[in-house]
Amino acid sequence: MNMYIEEDFGKYEIKQILCAFLEKMEAVKFNLINKIQSQKNIKTEDESIKMSNINSAINDFEKFIEFIENEKPILSATQEVLGRKDCYNLNMILENKKDVINPSYNQDKYFAIDLMFSLVLASKLYIKANDEKGKVRLFKTDKLESFQNLNEDEKYVFLLQTYWTKYDFETKFDRTHNIAAFYNILAEIASAKQGDIILKDEMDISNVMYSTGAAFFHHLKFFSFGELELINGAKTRYEDTIKSFSPNEFGIKISILLLTKAIQYWSREDVPVLLEYYNLKVTTNKSEKAFDVFKTIFKENTVKNTVEESKINKGGTYTFKVSLSKTVWRKINLAYKHTFGDLHNAIQEAFEFDNDHLYAFFIGGNRRKGIYCKYAEYEGSVAETTTIASLNLYKGERLLYLFDFGDEWKFNVELAKINEEVPVPLKPMIIESKGKSPHQYSGGWGLYE
Asked: Where are the transmembrane segments (predicted)?
């Protein structure tokens, strides 16, 4: 139960911090809002944004894909990201590269690499899965071929749309980087003119973006919004590494698009808080898809296609391997039409638990975006009504099953097989077991391990 209290408090805390700070900054806030509102006069809905030099982003992304395909790197055991040596070698062939002389940095310090790594997973061009030796690697999906068939403009739109609508801002940036900080940076860019230089304002809530939030500026540079002037020699993450940002016309107009027509698609839970506090009126079109907004970036109707939805057959029998450790696991067969509530019940039976606490499933282990049981009363997907097939899972894809939010029993769930040839089971079936089930009240997964 504590998890929900913390999550709810987190949302309340974000809103209170945002409002309390901005109440002291009325002059700054209204200055920025007036600027961005005045920029809405630019007819972004009628005039296509002129193309800038997007080649570096596309070239680097394709080099990233080529590196993954050729080198097939093993991901690190704990964080499941690229190792230091792989990051160093990949960095050497990129245009958006980090200035380094040896492989001594983790992936998160290579801003372009970390961004591209997140984008291929968020878009499901790749998934994380175990190889035949149990090592975690990136495996391509059928979506990659669809991406590679796009033209340059379409690839750029797909990457920017994925970033804005699926990138996990709230995990990558902690709570000190609330939505107003991001908004204000984009608002400054949107209200700028060609040749303007954006500098840190110590009195603005966005000042953290020049130090701990510097990755966001590097993301903007990756997407060709403008150029960065860096500060070298920072010894801790709390020191500034960004001196200035010089937006170009391309970045200015895309920032306007993001803060007006595309703001409703922003991948942040606190967008409604922002809109309410800033009193921003956003006209939404429920029949309009995000792609319909983002494809207007380029003129002459050059963007017609995007990455197709998965071609995998949603039907069949799904075999999940549910593990507590390497020596304690169960394999369970379910039909495509069974729900995650059914999977939960099968896991409880397989491990001889009492089914007496709340639970949730997290795709890829991301605990900010879960499928919760109905009794948790959590916004989002509900386990008892979300079918296995509806998630378009790939073979090898993994989930975290969390049972009992107090003791926190954590089970690794891997989709081991999708079989379209055999009859689907009427109810979940435990087909294979290894290891003795632990006592449910022994103190949780941590003590059991």
From this structure: none
